[in-house]
């Protein structure tokens, strides 16, 4: 699979290795003329600075925050190169992928997932570390 929608970022899943176990790309290639963007980890806080206790609400807010922070730099989700996911409890993959697929479509970025004991504040249950190029 190769993404040809964005001349700056190309995504691949080589056929000589196992298919991804989730909705991500094994390889993301960035053009040499791209500018790099590194964003602080995005959390599930809403516009009123409230962090809900519900994990899935935090996932929804986190993805909305990613779309907004990208837009602040005139970028779209298609510019995302890699996302590292840090979660303190098991992810509800049905909910997560419903939102992930809405945001990233059929050629999602590369991804790493880790379950951790805690994040920056005790109420934070998920944080996504986003790298983009444009």
UniProtKB/TrEMBL annotation:
Gene3D superfamilies: RutC-like. InterPro entries: RutC-like_sf, YjgF/YER057c/UK114. It holds the Pfam family Ribonuc_L-PSP. SUPFAM superfamilies: YjgF-like. It comes from the Bacteria. This is Enamine deaminase RidA. It comes from Paenibacillus selenitireducens. The lineage of its organism: Bacteria, Bacillati, Bacillota, Bacilli, Bacillales.
């Amino acid at each position: 699979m190769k993404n040809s929608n964005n001349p700056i970022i190309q995504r691949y899943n080589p056929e000589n290795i196992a298919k991804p176990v989730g909705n991500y790309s094994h390889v993301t290639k960035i053009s040499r003329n791209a500018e790099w963007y590194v964003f602080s980890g995005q959390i599930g806080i809403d516009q009123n600075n409230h962090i809900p206790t519900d994990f899935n609400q935090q996932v929804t807010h986190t993805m909305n925050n990613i779309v907004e922070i990208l837009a602040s730099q005139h970028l779209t989700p298609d510019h995302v190169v890699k996302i590292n996911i840090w979660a303190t409890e098991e992810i509800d993959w049905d909910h997560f992928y419903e939102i992930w697929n809405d945001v990233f479509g059929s050629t999602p970025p590369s991804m790493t997932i880790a379950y951790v004991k805690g994040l920056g504040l005790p109420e934070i249950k998920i944080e996504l570390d986003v790298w983009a190029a444009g």
